[in-house]
């Protein structure tokens, strides 16, 4: 009886260990083990970022970036996103940070999109923006923000910003990932490669085939 009890206890301990051991695999990115790891963009990306440039090849310029100082050229949506992620600014490699500059023409929108690998915070620098996001329970949160006001978007949730002021608008956004990624809803659905079959979209949106084809044509699809 005692041996049986011990055996069951040992089995329980083994099961607990099997449950606990995988947990680190699903935790946040590990802390860097070096002062910096400037990305070598010529190499292939690894699990936690790009390989590091040799320390002897690192220069002061690797830690400074002026790309966010320039106004972007707006797209058909009336907005322009200028990224400062690891692909544009190799110095942020493995640091778990990045930024965007978002310029808006009058009436422009940064269309509904999500960032699968990061939460987002942002601040309006100029103009008025309607900022909104949607939860997984289909609840919509939004507010019109003016210069100096901030917003936060939880990781992975669909969100947007639209210029509702009279002139241009400008915002800066920050992420807790060096490569947050972006899934832009309209271009994903209507301008993907290969193209999403029309019957998928007509059934999804409960519209006819001609309307789907018209929307796709707006994106050159």
Automatic annotation (TrEMBL):
- Residue positions annotated to bind oxalate are 100, 110, 115, 120
| Annotated binding of Mn(2+), by residue | 113, 115, 120, 159
Among Gene3D superfamilies, the record links this protein to: Jelly Rolls
Membrane listed as a keyword: no
Give Gene Ontology CC terms: apoplast
| Cystine bridges | 37-52
Q: Which residues cross the membrane?
A: none
Where does the record place it?
Answer: Secreted, Extracellular space, Apoplast
Alphabetized, the UniProt keywords read:
Apoplast, Disulfide bond, Glycoprotein, Manganese, Metal-binding, Secreted, Signal
- Into which family does the record put it? Belongs to the germin family.
Question: Mind telling me which SUPFAM superfamilies this protein's record contains?
Answer: RmlC-like cupins
Instruction: Give the GO molecular function terms.
Output: manganese ion binding
Q: Which Pfam families match?
A: Cupin_1 (PF00190)
Against InterPro entries, the record matches this protein to: Cupin_1, Germin, RmlC-like_jellyroll, RmlC_Cupin_sf
Signal sequence, start to end: 1-28
This protein is called what? Answer: Germin-like protein
Where does the Cupin type-1 domain start and stop, copy by copy?
66-213
Q: What does this protein do?
A: May play a role in plant defense. Probably has no oxalate oxidase activity even if the active site is conserved.
Organism classification, top ranks?
A: Eukaryota, Viridiplantae, Streptophyta, Embryophyta, Tracheophyta
Q: What is its main location?
A: secreted
């Amino acid at each position: 009886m005692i041996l049986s009890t011990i055996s069951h206890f040992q089995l329980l301990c083994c099961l607990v260990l099997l449950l606990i051991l995988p947990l680190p695999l699903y935790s946040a990115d590990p802390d860097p083990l070096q002062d910096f790891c400037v990305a070598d963009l010529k190499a292939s990306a690894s699990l936690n970022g790009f390989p590091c440039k040799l320390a002897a090849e690192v220069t002061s310029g690797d830690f400074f970036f002026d790309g966010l100082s320039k106004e972007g050229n707006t797209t058909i949506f009336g907005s322009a996103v200028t990224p400062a992620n690891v692909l544009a600014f190799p110095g942020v490699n493995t640091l778990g940070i990045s930024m965007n500059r978002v310029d808006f023409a009058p009436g422009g929108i940064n269309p509904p999109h999500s960032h699968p690998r990061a939460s987002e915070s942002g601040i309006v620098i100029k103009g008025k923006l309607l900022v909104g996001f949607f939860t997984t329970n289909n609840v919509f949160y939004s507010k019109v923000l003016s210069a100096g006001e901030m917003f936060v978007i939880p990781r992975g949730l669909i969100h947007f910003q639209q210029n509702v002021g009279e002139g241009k608008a400008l915002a800066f956004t920050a992420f807790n990932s060096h490569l947050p990624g972006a899934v832009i809803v309209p271009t994903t659905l209507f301008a993907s490669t290969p193209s999403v079959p029309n019957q998928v979209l007509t059934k999804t949106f409960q519209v006819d085939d001609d309307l789907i084809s018209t929307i796709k044509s707006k994106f050159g699809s």
